[in-house]
């Protein structure tokens, strides 16, 4: 070990030093908080920037520093939070599967769990819709619920009038010519072709986009599709939605 | 990702060329050419073919070359001006075939800079001093001298600087043995720089300045300065000191002027072509001087390709007349070299270089222009006209192929061959072409003759061991043998002594002068005097395999018995030994008899139990097994190949003699091991898959050395070239059996059988990786695409400043009629046809197109069938339109199928300001099975569409700085969506799934996404480095490869987490609202690979050149080189090669003085790329240096060579 070779105090001194190092390392805290690098230096794993420290002595000093302690406590806190969240979600998922058969994915439920108002609204909407079927439908009371949940996820972004119309159509008509995806696809085609929607759900042409002379008008062909589906229905779609909402609040 | 860069084909363009006697002696004349970063020594051989003697990658940009000779010496030295900030003097070492660095003097910073010398070199004609100049300010003069040991010495530099001065050209002035003088054309801009009104700039005047080196005072001074024409661009030294009047020729726009101190100007007009527009001048672009004992003349070439011979009438120091005579017209060259042997080497600016032979030197006295007939009128000097004619004084005897510049390249297996073909668009203007490159050596077929049946084997034999040429070709059929004698003609003979009623197993010349035929039932030994000795096989056993050399024969009988014969002193074939093998013998071979020995010691026997045994043939341990090698499948053919010891020389580096055993296995693998010359132990095994058939191995002669021909599903040639053992495919059909062939018509040929034909061919251009087929095109090709289904190719070509085809044709017709030639030749549009028309007296390829104004464009769209090389449709664009981009597009739910989109610009001008009348996107429909095009409609756009790409059933176009999405409408394209936020000009678009990778001409890549629900294009990531993009290629979902105009290749990758984030953002709200960073997109791509190629890369593609091999990124450059970047698959290889590269950098610094690491990091630090070109210089190191490096790497030199070979074989 000695640079000069032979028996010298160097080797012994080195051993002693290593022993001290080991002791110091023990003092530096548990082994998961640092890593010994191949260069013989130490990297702190707790601090956000993983500082590299030259000797165990400095590592031990570092582990007593204010910054390190702050990072440590922060880390602990985060870990705790994560554990809590996991517990909560597991509990919720057990809960929701037993309660709500039409649950979406686990994650979505979990997200909603933290948003009680949204959840409440959604539950209410669901109930309203269910309760409204027998009133409107003529011979569909035996319809199962499952296709609804499949075709119309209760994501708030999809809570458009179109999906309501769609949902209704599914319930009302036995043969469904346009399912949700197909319909969405057709809509996308029109948006990609340069059509835009106004706040009433009508379509208009984007002035920056060019159109062919014989281009299809979505106002006609999409609406026609809906009308075809709802041939017995004469109420406009938006009004229908309002009606539903009203009834829901009345019920409440 | 770590990459290995390997140049597959060296640059083919030439930047500068000099000639001289570099190997010493008066007789030999060589040419040294600089091909960008490669220095090459060429020599025309006795047949007038240019041979490459030496090619060295110098890892630096060579900017100028000059040669000088010390007084009284027989040998020329080479001075190199490069971007290294150093002047380097090289000496060609004939014995070792290397350039030796004699001197390397540092004077400045590295890099091609304004004021660091290196751009210009001038030599004192007596070889006493050299001047090296920069574009601006600095000029240094070095005094060259000899020390007592007659070695060349170089002084410290003497400064001849003048600040605020631009230098245009420098030359040495021949003033005999007076103090050396250098002349320079200079422009002083100090006043113009100060004067903001611009008046001084208008009045700035070029001067011719003489700098005198005072050898006594060791000092350089400005001796004389005089105004010259502002169009002056070049100086040519005029012989002096008794040989001529001294002074210089100043080449200026329209004039050649003789100038000297104290001498009035002698001026003559350069004749101009009659069809040249009046506003265009005539400039000299290359010049050469030829001096004989009694006379001297100059050859000057104009920018239109016309070569003029300039002579000076002088009496002593007084020049009385300067005469200019039209000499010939050859393609515009970057350098011309007149050689003493009567050759003119013209290094073309673009396209193939040519070697001409002088038929005459234009000695008749009538001249086009002379200083005596110079007419000055009110408007200036009267122009002189001439009419170009066919070659009269020169005749072309050879050409050297050049791909420069490669404009576009695609690698695809269109012809369904074993390996893909590389399609390149090359050249410029009328000399442009489509070249199809195939990996492999070119062959030239000498003869093909049908035989009466299907032959199984062929041999050639000499009658006597001392004969130069072969005497017989023996062909074996299933049940007969045919003997053909070689003479003036090849004809069948029956008196040769060979048994012709049986098939043959081997035929060879044996002993000194007898022949041997081995057939299944015996050995027939035919003595010189016609006596025949026959040895019969015992019992009913038949001979199955034979191995023989000049003195030994081994036959294997069915059942596995081996019988060994030797030729004794009297020439008798005597049985020596028998040996029973365990099973049937699959193949046999005997090593050639070593020089000065009686017998070879080794017999190799391959068995069907997947083993190869080496047996001893020594009398004391005969038939002892010396070593055993097991292989992966039964061997089919064996061949010993002896590589003779070499200490450099013409072809190769140092290596000791070694013996290789090659085995062709039934699995199609060629297995190669080294045989220890003493013990017979096998080591250093290498294997390589050659094809689907078991390779049959034959020994042939290539350049006087033993080489190996392997016949698998295609033929391969294994040979030693410049120190490397190369195994290269031949571009020829499948062969069954082959033998070397030598006759007086064909010294080193191969005779082979395939099907029922006998073929004789020679192998050409050894050392090259590719062979090419060229199809001429009409204008400078820009881009091309493949018709996806029909195997057709659509190119766009465009040229500036030329007339459209009809105008050219009519003008030409008029011209011919005026000349009274009438319509004798074929009047079809040349270059539209298949080959250059030899009868055409003025082919455009040679003479160039007539020049039009610079704002005139001509362009065409061509559909080409590469298989038949036939153009099936050629649309010439009208009205000054030029095509710039092309793509095929399938519009969704539209009835037309595949359409062709072409982006064009009308009236594009670059100067004084970039402007255009309009841009268009043409949509064409393929008709007649895709062979023809029909215009559907064209849509006007407000910029040049430089990039087009299909995207989700629509067309994406980059129009100026706008990215636009188009749908197909009835009358035009319908603009559906656009993004105007790109910084400069979009010049490349690639798409993958819903991502769009846009390349900006100055600002590298932008990653975009198209959102259908909002009908918007978002840029979500871009590069933080402003790269001037010249080529782009999509590597994977997150990675793009690009090249910039400074000669760098780089890969950028979107970090994985960012990529995931983008993909998992369902609403796209994040991309939309995220804050931009560094004036760009919110996310930045990371540079993962960076490498300075040293040449502008114009095209890139991912491809594999070997069947079933890993893909590599191939690139083509302006200088006409092809390279590949191979990704390493193991960490060990990376470590090994990076260490090898590191040692090579230390042990073998580049020749021109540029540091290798600095060169590869010229613009950005090199990252994760190992330079294979440097690693491959390892075999050229001296043996001890090789060993030293190998020791450092804990390997043997052979292992390193094997590694290098392996990685090369992975690429090509």
From TrEMBL, chain A:
One of its GO terms (biological process) is mRNA processing. Residues 44-70 form the Sodium channel modifier 1 zinc-finger domain. Signal peptide: none annotated. Keywords: Metal-binding, mRNA processing, mRNA splicing, Nucleus, Spliceosome, Zinc, Zinc-finger. GO terms for molecular function: zinc ion binding. GO terms for cellular component: nuclear speck; spliceosomal complex. It is found in: Nucleus speckle; Nucleus, Nucleoplasm. It comes from the Eukaryota. Its main location: nucleus. The keyword Zinc applies. Residues 182-220 form the Sodium channel modifier 1 acidic C-terminal domain. This is Sodium channel modifier 1. It comes from Deinandra increscens subsp. villosa. The lineage of its organism: Eukaryota, Viridiplantae, Streptophyta, Embryophyta, Tracheophyta.
From TrEMBL, chain B:
Residues 443-763 form the RSE1/DDB1/CPSF1 second beta-propeller domain. Its main location: nucleus. Residues 859-1178 form the RSE1/DDB1/CPSF1 C-terminal domain. It is found in: Nucleus. Residues 822-849 are annotated as: Disordered. PANTHER family: DNA REPAIR/RNA PROCESSING CPSF FAMILY (PTHR10644). This is Splicing factor 3B subunit 3.
């Amino acid at each position: 070990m000695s640079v000069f070779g032979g028996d010298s105090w160097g080797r012994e001194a080195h051993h002693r030093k290593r022993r001290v190092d080991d002791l110091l390392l023990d003092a530096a805290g548990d082994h998961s908080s640092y890593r010994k690098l191949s260069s013989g230096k130490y990297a702190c794993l707790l601090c956000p920037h993983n500082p590299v420290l030259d000797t165990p002595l400095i590592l031990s000093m570092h582990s007593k520093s204010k910054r390190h302690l702050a990072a440590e406590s922060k880390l602990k806190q985060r870990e705790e939070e994560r554990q809590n969240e996991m517990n909560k979600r597991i509990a919720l998922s057990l809960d929701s599967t037993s309660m709500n058969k039409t649950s979406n994915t686990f994650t979505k439920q979990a997200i909603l769990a933290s948003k009680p108002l949204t959840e409440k609204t959604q539950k209410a909407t669901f109930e309203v819709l269910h309760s409204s079927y027998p009133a409107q439908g003529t011979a569909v009371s035996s319809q199962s619920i499952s296709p609804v949940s499949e075709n119309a996820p209760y994501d708030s972004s999809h809570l458009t009038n179109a999906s309501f119309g769609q949902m209704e159509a599914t319930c009302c008509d036995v043969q469904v010519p346009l399912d949700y995806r197909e319909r969405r696809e057709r809509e996308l085609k029109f948006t990609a072709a340069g059509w835009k929607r106004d706040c009433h759900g009508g379509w208009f042409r984007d002035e920056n986009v060019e159109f062919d002379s014989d281009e299809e008008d979505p106002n006609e062909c999409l609406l026609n599709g809906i009308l075809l589906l709802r041939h017995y229905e004469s109420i406009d779609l938006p009004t229908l939605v309002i009606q539903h909402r009203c009834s829901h609040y009345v019920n409440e | 990702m770590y990459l290995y860069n390997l140049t597959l084909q060296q640059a083919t363009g030439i930047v500068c060329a000099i000639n001289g006697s570099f190997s010493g002696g008066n007789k030999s004349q060589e040419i040294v050419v600089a091909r960008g970063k490669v220095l090459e020594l060429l020599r025309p051989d006795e047949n007038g073919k240019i041979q490459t003697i030496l090619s060295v990658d110098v890892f630096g940009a060579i900017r100028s070359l000059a040669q000088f000779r010390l007084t009284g010496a027989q040998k020329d030295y080479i001075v190199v001006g490069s971007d290294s900030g150093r002047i380097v003097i090289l000496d060609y070492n004939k014995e070792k075939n290397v350039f030796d660095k004699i001197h390397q003097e540092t004077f400045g910073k590295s890099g091609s800079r304004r004021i660091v010398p290196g751009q210009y070199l001038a030599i004192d004609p007596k070889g006493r001093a050299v001047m090296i100049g920069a574009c601006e300010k600095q000029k240094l003069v070095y005094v060259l001298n000899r020390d007592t040991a007659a070695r060349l010495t170089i002084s410290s530099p003497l400064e001849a600087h003048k600040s605020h001065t631009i230098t245009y050209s420098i030359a040495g002035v021949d003033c005999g043995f007076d103090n050396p003088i250098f002349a320079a054309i200079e422009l002083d801009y100090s006043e113009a720089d100060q004067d903001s009104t611009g008046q001084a700039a208008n009045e700035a005047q070029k001067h011719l300045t003489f700098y005198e080196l005072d050898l006594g005072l060791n000092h350089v001074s400005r001796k004389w300065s005089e105004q010259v024409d502002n169009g002056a661009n070049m100086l040519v030294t005029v012989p002096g000191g008794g040989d001529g009047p001294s002074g210089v020729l100043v080449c200026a726009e329209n004039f050649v002027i003789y100038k000297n101190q104290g001498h009035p100007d002698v001026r003559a007009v350069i004749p101009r072509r009659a069809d040249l527009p009046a506003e265009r001048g005539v400039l000299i672009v290359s010049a050469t001087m030829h001096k004989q004992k009694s006379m001297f003349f100059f050859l000057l070439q104009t920018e239109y390709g016309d070569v003029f011979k300039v002579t000076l009438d002088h009496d002593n120091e007084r020049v009385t007349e300067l005469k200019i005579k039209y000499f010939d017209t050859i393609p515009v060259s970057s350098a011309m070299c007149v050689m003493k042997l009567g050759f003119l080497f013209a290094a073309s600016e673009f396209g193939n270089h040519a070697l001409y032979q002088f038929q005459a030197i234009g000695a008749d006295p009538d001249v086009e222009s002379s200083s005596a007939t110079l007419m000055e009128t009110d408007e200036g000097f009267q122009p002189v006209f001439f009419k170009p004619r066919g070659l009269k004084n020169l005749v072309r005897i050879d050409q050297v192929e050049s791909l420069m510049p490669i404009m576009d390249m695609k690698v695809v297996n269109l012809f369904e061959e074993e390996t893909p073909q590389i399609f390149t668009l090359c050249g410029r203007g009328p000399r442009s072409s489509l070249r199809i490159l195939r990996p492999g050596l070119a062959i030239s077929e000498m003869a093909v003759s049908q035989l009466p049946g299907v032959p199984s084997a062929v041999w050639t034999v000499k009658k006597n061991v001392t004969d130069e040429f072969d005497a017989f070709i023996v062909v074996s059929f299933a049940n007969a043998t045919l003997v053909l004698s070689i003479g003036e003609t090849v004809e069948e003979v029956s008196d040769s002594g060979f048994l012709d009623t049986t098939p043959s197993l081997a035929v060879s010349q044996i002993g000194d002068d007898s022949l041997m035929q081995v057939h299944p039932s015996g050995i027939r030994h035919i003595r010189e005097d016609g006596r025949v000795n026959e040895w019969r096989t015992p019992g009913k056993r038949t001979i199955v395999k034979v191995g023989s050399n000049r003195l030994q024969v081994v036959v294997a009988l069915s059942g596995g018995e081996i019988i060994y014969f030797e030729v004794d002193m009297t020439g008798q074939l005597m049985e020596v030994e028998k040996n029973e093998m365990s099973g049937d013998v699959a193949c046999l071979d005997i090593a050639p008899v070593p020089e000065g020995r009686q017998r070879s010691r080794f017999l190799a026997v391959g068995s069907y139990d997947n083993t190869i045994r080496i047996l001893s043939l020594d009398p004391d341990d005969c038939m002892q097994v010396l070593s055993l090698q097991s292989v992966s499948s039964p061997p089919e053919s064996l061949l010993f190949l002896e590589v003779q010891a070499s200490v450099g020389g013409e072809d190769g580096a140092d290596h000791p003699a070694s013996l290789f055993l090659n085995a062709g296995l039934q699995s199609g693998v060629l297995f190669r091991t080294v045989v220890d010359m003493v013990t017979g132990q096998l080591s250093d095994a290498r294997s390589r898959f050659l094809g689907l058939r078991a390779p049959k191995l034959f020994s042939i002669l290539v350049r006087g050395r033993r080489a190996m021909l392997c016949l698998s599903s295609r033929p391969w040639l294994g040979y030693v070239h410049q120190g490397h053992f190369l195994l290269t495919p031949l571009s020829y059909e499948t062969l069954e059996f082959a033998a070397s062939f030598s006759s007086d018509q064909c010294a080193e040929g191969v005779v082979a059988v395939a099907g029922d034909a006998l073929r004789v061919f020679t192998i050409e251009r050894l050392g090259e990786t590719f062979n090419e087929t060229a199809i001429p095109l009409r204008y400078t090709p820009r881009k091309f695409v493949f018709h996806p289904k029909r195997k057709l190719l659509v190119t766009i070509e465009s040229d500036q400043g030329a007339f459209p085809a009809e105008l050219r044709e009519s003008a030409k017709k008029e011209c011919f009629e005026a000349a009274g030639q009438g319509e004798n030749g074929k009047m079809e549009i040349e270059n539209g046809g298949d080959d250059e028309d030899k009868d055409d007296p003025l082919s455009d390829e040679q003479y160039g197109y007539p020049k039009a104004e610079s704002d005139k464009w001509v362009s065409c769209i061509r559909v080409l069938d590469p298989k038949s090389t036939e153009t099936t449709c050629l649309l010439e664009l009208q009205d000054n339109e030029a095509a710039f981009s092309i793509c095929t597009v399938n519009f969704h739910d539209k009835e037309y199928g595949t359409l062709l989109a072409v982006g064009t610009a009308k009236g594009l001008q670059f100067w004084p300001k970039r402007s255009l009348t309009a841009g268009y996107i043409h949509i064409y429909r393929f008709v007649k099975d895709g062979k023809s095009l029909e215009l559907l409609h064209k849509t006007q756009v407000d910029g040049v569409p430089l990039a087009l790409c299909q995207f989700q059933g629509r067309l994406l176009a980059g129009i100026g700085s706008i990215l636009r999405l188009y749908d197909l409408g009835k009358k035009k394209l319908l603009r559906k969506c656009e993004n105007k936020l790109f910084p400069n000009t979009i010049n490349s678009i690639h798409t993958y799934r819903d991502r769009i990778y846009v390349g900006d001409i100055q600002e590298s890549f932008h990653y975009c996404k198209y959102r259908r629900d909002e009908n918007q294009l978002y840029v979500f990531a871009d590069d933080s480095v402003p790269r001037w993009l010249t080529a782009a290629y999509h590597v994977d979902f997150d990675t793009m490869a690009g090249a910039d105009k400074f000669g760098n290749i780089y890969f950028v990758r979107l970090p994985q987490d960012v990529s995931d984030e983008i993909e998992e953002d369902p609403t796209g709200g994040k991309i939309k609202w995220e804050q931009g960073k560094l004036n760009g997109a919110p996310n930045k791509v990371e540079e993962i690979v960076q490498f300075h190629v040293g040449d502008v890369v114009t095209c890139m593609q991912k491809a594999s050149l070997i069947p079933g091999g890993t893909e590599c990124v191939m690139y083509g450059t302006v200088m006409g080189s092809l390279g590949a970047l191979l990704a390493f698959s193991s960490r060990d290889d990376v470590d090994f090669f990076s260490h090898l590269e590191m040692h090579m950098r230390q042990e073998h610094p580049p020749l021109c003085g540029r540091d290798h690491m600095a060169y590869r990091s010229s613009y950005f630090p090199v990252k994760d790329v190992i330079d294979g070109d440097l690693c491959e210089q390892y075999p050229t190191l001296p043996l001890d240096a090789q060993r030293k490096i190998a020791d450092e790497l804990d390997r043997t030199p052979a292992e390193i060579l094997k590694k290098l070979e392996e990685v090369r074989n992975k690429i090509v």
